[in-house]
Amino acid sequence: MRRTQANAQRTWAGSTGPARLLACVLLAGAVGACASGGPVSSPGTARSVASTCFDRETQPHTSVVDAHVHFRPFNGPAVPFAELVRYLEEAGVRFATVMGIGQVLPASSSCTYYLDCPGTPVVPSLRNDFVNAANVAAGPPGKVRLALSMTFPDFSRPGSVAAGIEVLDREFPGMFEWMGEVNLVKQAMYQNDVADVADSMPPLWAPFMATLRQRGIPLSIHADLGDNDEPLKHLPLVERVLDLYPENKIVWVHMGLSLQLTELDPARHVELLKRLLDQRPNLFLDISWRIVHDHYFAEAEKRAPYVALFNAYSDRILPGTDFLASRNKNFETYKEELAVTSSINQHLSDEAFRNIALGGNYARLLNLDYEAPEICPG
Asked: Pseudo-torsion of CA 324, 129, 134, 81, nearest 10°?
């Protein structure tokens, strides 16, 4: 910690822009507040340079990382970029992955959300990635360290993925650090002409997966496990991807859960996840989305196996809200979703809380020069 702070102090003194911002966050602590004049602390929410531990008794349990937040909706007006960044800042989030929406509704559609328009196709597009990248490039530094994500890929057309990466490299060189959320299986979109990726497709991903691997870019995949009638129907496809690309950092969003799978036995689910985590050291679990909380974490009996899993594999878990920034939402919506999706943090061990809620895992995944604060002795 002292070495990290010393490096950050030198960076703060001799840099500007994003580097100066990150140094500020490092000096202030994982939940620090960064003002224009430098690192500062505020009672109850911030860490100062002198105070290197996090007090779980007095400080918020909400995650300082949102590894899954959509800055763009499926269609229609979005919450303005700077306004959404303020939501993150005001909620105490210090690190966020800037996702768009890869599969979008037609611009001519009157719908904001795909579920409101059954029968209307949603089609992969670079549209939202361009908007997000332009906003990040133009926006002034703030308190949140943003990681741009490529959400355009169509896994059923592998050649288009490599071509899209080239386009983004040309227009926004070096800016994208993540890929996803990208759909492998998303049952909710069946009514919008979206089919599962065919089993024959994953072997053809090798060129763009090599690019991600060489750059150390994580890939967040939406892959529903199944439905209440056939809970593990799509597991073979998920395992095929994991087997083909064991060296890629793959983040399985929502742990494979969905609105179509709300009755899976938690003990059975956790045993499956343990097996996959043991066999595949580069697999991470995304525990975002309030649907996961409402159906699996809200009740103590169902929650218990997951808490045990997260404590045992605490270096492989990423938090997030899955907030979708359509203009009909506001700060109160975001704050509520962060509170709900962070509620499980209260039940985690100190080590797991530090890795998950305080950003240790996120920083390691992106190779950030950041160390989450230690937990204060009880």
From this structure: 0
Whole-number pLDDT of residue 139: 81
Residues whose CB is less than 8 angstroms from the CB of residue 220 and which lie 6 or more positions away in sequence, other chains included: 68, 97, 99, 149, 178, 179, 180, 181, 182, 251, 253, 286
Q: Cis link prior to 181 (omega < 30° from 0)?
A: yes
Here the tokens at position 185 are: 């299986």
Q: What is the DSSP letter of 358?
A: T
Position 123 confidence tier, pLDDT thresholds 50, 70, 90: confident
CA distance 378 to 365: 29
Q: How many CB atoms lie within 10 A of CB 161?
A: 24
Model confidence at 115, pLDDT cuts 50, 70, 90, reads: low
Kindly give, in sequence order, each residue whose CB lies less than 8 Å from that of residue 275, ignoring residues fewer than 6 positions away: none
Give the domains, in start order, of the chain with CATH numbers.
1-51 (no CATH), 62-370 (3.20.20.140)
Using alpha carbons, select from 277, 357, 346 the residue that is nearest to residue 309: 277
